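Final report, Chapter 2: Outcomes

The project's central promise was a pipeline that accepts a single protein chain and returns its three-dimensional structure in a standardized token representation, suitable for archiving and comparison. That pipeline is now operational. To close this chapter, we reproduce one record exactly as it appears in the project archive, with the input sequence first and the structure output second.
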Amino acid sequence: MKDIVVIGAGYGGLVASALLAKEGHNVTVIEKNEQPGGKASLLKKDGFQFDMGPSWYMWPQAFEKFFEEFGENASDYLELKQLDPSYRVFFDDGEIIDISSDIEKNYEIFDRLEENGAEKLRQYLEVCKKQYDIAMDGFVYRTYNSIFDFFTPSMVANGLRLKAFSNYHKGVKKYFKNHKAQKLLEWITVFLGGDPRNVPGMYCMMSYLDHHHGIYYPKGGMNGLAQKIYEIALENGVKFKFNEAVTKINVEGKLANNVITENREYFADLVVNNADYHHGETQLLEEKNQTYKSNYWNKKTMAISMHLAYIGVNRKIDNLTHHNYFFNEDWNNHFDQIFKTPQWPDNPNFYVCCPSRIDKNVAPEGMENLFFLVPVASDLKDSDSIRESYFDKILDKFETWTGEKIKDDIVVKSLFTHRDFKSRYNAYKGTGLGMAHTLWQTAVFRPKHRSSKVKNLYYTGQYNHPGVGVPTTVISSQILVNEMKKEGVLA
């Protein structure tokens, strides 16, 4: 039996701890905040319960594979509800489009947007499914410890078939000329932390999952999902220490022998870091033990940060569904103001989640729970006046596009921006998602699961392969534990 310390109780830390404990090891998770879930924390205020971060449950196969390891059926265990419509899109010309869980209805929508749109969507989604099958067969559930793991003949061939060397927008544009049709297929790149013009084309597999497998809501939202994984970890003997920030990973003779917190020291045979990767490397380790030093991080393209608003409204809102997008005709300017000329976007696109449409527990009776998200560049100036005025700007757009005047009906408001990501999650530059998915930040080009300087130090989470997103973070920890088994360090 090994003594294993996991730093951070986000999805990656929860999954890794449960899997390691299942192997019979003594696992302790140390979390700086007051609850499990990491960015999927829960904010409770005046009878409202807000998911603080992730709000989308898609790619159900990734979760099913994890829960099956513990003898659970994910759909039943999480009490999943399929959403219909999957999401609603508001365009700035007044048109509103609902994407359905019924693919036939979506074919009709694309046929209306563009000549032969239904057939084009069928062909496009067939390509996306092939991408998904190739990725799942040999690309996703594996680690890349060196360039030679990636540039093998089979991987290069699969990379070409996956369109890994082309960008997402080009792949969509090949089939669709209508800008609305393009946006309906490209929105997912925002949650990959990037711009459709620089995210690799292979990620179009997410559109296949969207249209053919649907969008779901687990009981209790995405924090409810985190709580279920937390319960499994507890059942397998994992011990949790909350409100205890790690201050140092002590290394002697190229081995991490203990983890030091504000309160005490924890002996460790193995250490797994699920905290922000940059923080774990540059703040918890001495420079001589860092695989990725400051100059490495300075060169990387960070994913988006976010202007988040948790809003309680004292009445119901008729024009919303669970997931709602608000898209401008020219959305490239928004992406440019994130990645090319970082600044607060002057005409932003945004997203609003309204979970109280289907979950009566997240808001008092007769009221509505709203979660506003605006993608913004990381490391922007973030003052009280900026965040407040920016929310007012978004609220004005929301009221104009929906026809719902809610400003005077708001009874709860809490804003969360760059400085909160830094203080609560130690997020580098206040990023909400880690490193963006660009070609040169995919697979072998992402930070490794294993330290090259400290023999018994490992990493998991959104920075590692497969990357950004809740399902990929779950997969990251599964990859990690499988690699640890192969290396024999768990023997």
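Archive annotation: The first helix runs from residue 11 to 22.
This record, like all others produced under the grant, will remain available to the consortium after the project formally closes.
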